[in-house]
Amino acid sequence: MAIDTRSTAPPEPVAYDAFRLNRNWGERAVTVVAPDFPDLPPVNLTAATGEVADGERDFAWLRVPNEDVWTALEDGKVIVSEPFAFRRGITEAQNTITLLTDRGEVPFEIVGVYYDYATDQGTVFMADEVYRQYYDDPYVSSLAAFVAPGDDANRVLADIRAALEGTTLVAQSNVSLRAGVFTIFERAFTITYALQLLAALVAFIGILSALMALQLENTRQYGAMRAVGLTSRQLSLFTMIQTGLMGLVAGALALPIGLVLAIVLIYVINVRSFGWTMQLVLQPQEFVLAFAVAVLSALAAGIYPARRLSQLVTVQALRSE
């Protein structure tokens, strides 16, 4: 769980029977000026007393071994998020950022660029002890409290809120925060699910319209086929085969086109719009599902035309033009 101090002085460590709270697990978030980029917004700087990602942070590139990242930060180096690097042209060759500190302009070596989606302006991440060396700032933005195994997190959270009553501090459980984030993501992707349903509906209507037009155009041909001995069942089967082939071709063409669109979205549009990329994960079941939807939509669209053909009157079909 986290406690947001909202730029106030950190409280003294408080002893509880179910958790420990101290400045060893704190974070300070501020904005500072980067003289090298006067036309860009101020830099979002985060200084932490520990690696909250616990060694699981994903990097676009890294100049030191992953297990040595925190050691590099304690030595005065920094890491930046992908949007920050994109908007300032930071690469492995161009890996220095100058920040205006209380000690003047100080260049910092960038040892890595990590994936992050918190802000499209990006963030500079440094060790707290380095931050305190260059900035006369006694404050913290958040502190962490760790619940001992077996203790009730809700009870601990209630104790913390009771202890902080009357202050501007806010305490929140990481579990509830995570649940809230996933709820927001699910709501955001609801429109995606609706678009998928709409795409399937459009495909259904498109194939149905094509089959009805084809049936109308070839009515005389179908009458001739019935006249030479083709049964109504065989004619319906002929229509379903046509429909299935249309679905197979559509599905086969949609898979590579969809993959290309995904690549363009991730590596071109997202980068231009937000400055970040997402990891492209290709799951076979998603391709199989998309192909199956195309085929099943086509077969479903062919049911009504096939039924109409089964009721075709041969004489009337031969007289049609």
Describe the structure.
It is a single chain. The longest helix is centred in the middle third of the chain and has 44 residues, at 174-217. The chain folds into two domains: 2-172, no CATH class; 186-319, no CATH class. The protein contains ten helices and ten strands. It has 321 residues and is α+β, with helices and mostly antiparallel strands. The chain has helices spanning 69-74, 82-87, 128-134, 153-163, 174-217, 219-227, 232-274, 284-301, 303-310, 314-319; strands at residues 2-4, 19-32, 43-48, 59-62, 78-81, 96-101, 104-114, 124-127, 142-147, 170-172. It is elongated and about 95 Å long. Strands 1, 2, 3, 4, 5, 6, 7, 8, 9 and 10 form a ten-stranded mixed β-sheet that branches. Helix 5 (174-217) runs parallel beside helix 8 (284-301), helix 7 (232-274) crosses helix 8 and helix 7 (232-274) packs antiparallel against helix 9.
State the low-pLDDT regions, or none. Answer: 1-23
Q: How helical, in percent, are the residues?
A: 40-55%
Q: Estimate what percentage of residues fall within beta strands.
A: 15-25%
Q: Look at the helices and sheets and give the structural class.
A: alpha+beta
Please tally the β strands and state the result: 10
Main attributes of the structure:
321 residues, alpha+beta, 2 domains, ten-stranded mixed beta sheet, 19% strand, disordered N terminus
Can you lay out the helices and strands and say which pair or pack?
Layout: E1 2-4, E2 19-32, E3 43-48, E4 59-62, H1 69-74, E5 78-81, H2 82-87, E6 96-101, E7 104-114, E8 124-127, H3 128-134, E9 142-147, H4 153-163, E10 170-172, H5 174-217, H6 219-227, H7 232-274, H8 284-301, H9 303-310, H10 314-319
Parallel strand pairs: 3-8, 5-7
Antiparallel strand pairs: 1-9, 1-10, 2-3, 2-9, 4-7, 5-8, 6-7
